[in-house]
Amino acid sequence: MSAGTSHLGIVTIGQAPRTDLHEDLSTLLAQHIDVVERGALDALTLEEIEQRYPTGKQSQVLVSRMRDGRQVIIAEQDLEPLLDTAVRAMAREDDVDAIVVLCTGELPDYRDLPMPVLSPKRLVRHGIQSLFPQGRLLIMSPEPRQMQNARTRWETAGFHVETLSASPYGNTQELERAAQEAVPLKGDLLYLDCMGYTLAQRQRIAKLSGHRTLTPRQIVFSAANLLLA
Fold first, then answer.
1. CA 163, CA 191: separation in Å to the nearest integer?
2. CB-based burial of residue 176 (10 Å sphere; 0-12 exposed, 13-18 middle, 19+ buried)?
């Protein structure tokens, strides 16, 4: 794909369009790449989601954003079929060259589809393991219920882990509080474990915490540029 325009499909686990992503894409994506968006929850209101898919005390939850900016939380097992439908509809109908799923959780390989589907989790894991093998990692998750799963996942990958929680879809004070909590912690990297964390939030958290800080957007869309060059 050396000439002309490439088309990158972006499937959010919340609702499209993800207007909170657009400013960062203008910085992170090459100019020849156009974006097409879909959301796993596009057909539902927040009230319908909360009624049909109550999370209760479930620990396996995912956090995303509705198109009006409100935060939405849904259990992984409830989201999976909705996300699968959105990814396959995009592959079938939207004429894209590659797909990014806006989720750092577990995803299928989708090797049966005719275009590559980029997994943020795999891209980020391999990138961090290459840069900081067996290092000390600070993980910020959007939701407190995600902290233990994050710890287990990264300890299994060989890291010493400390966990924090603050949502990218909440208020600025929440993020600043978590950044301050990270100040006394020792770590080679503070990883913001959600595709929702913006570059501006990354910069603010890095300044307040004093830690080298990474949002998955940086790695994932660099990979998309390479793939669609």
1. 10
2. middle
The total of other beta-carbon atoms located within 10 Å of residue 141's CB is: 24
Residues 6+ apart with CB under 8 A from 43: none
Radius of gyration of the chain (CA): 17
Global pTM value: 0.94
At 140, which amino acid appears? M
Q: Report the C-alpha gap between 121 and 134 in whole angstroms.
A: 17
Which of the four pLDDT bands, split at 50, 70 and 90, describes residue 109?
A: confident
Using alpha carbons, select from 56, 21, 61, 5 the residue that is nearest to residue 215.
21
pLDDT in the model for residue 2: 44
- Measured distance CA(85)–CA(87) in Å, rounded: 6
Return d(Cα 48, Cα 34) in angstroms, integer. 32
Dihedral class, residue 4 (left if φ above 0, else alpha if ψ from -120 to 50, else beta): left
- E strand or H helix that includes residue 12: strand 6-12
* Token pair belonging to 113: 């589809």
Residue 59 to residue 105: CA distance in whole angstroms: 13
Q: Where are the alpha helices (DSSP H) in the chain?
A: 19-28, 46-52, 76-93, 120-131, 147-156, 172-182, 199-209, 216-227
pLDDT of residue 59: 86
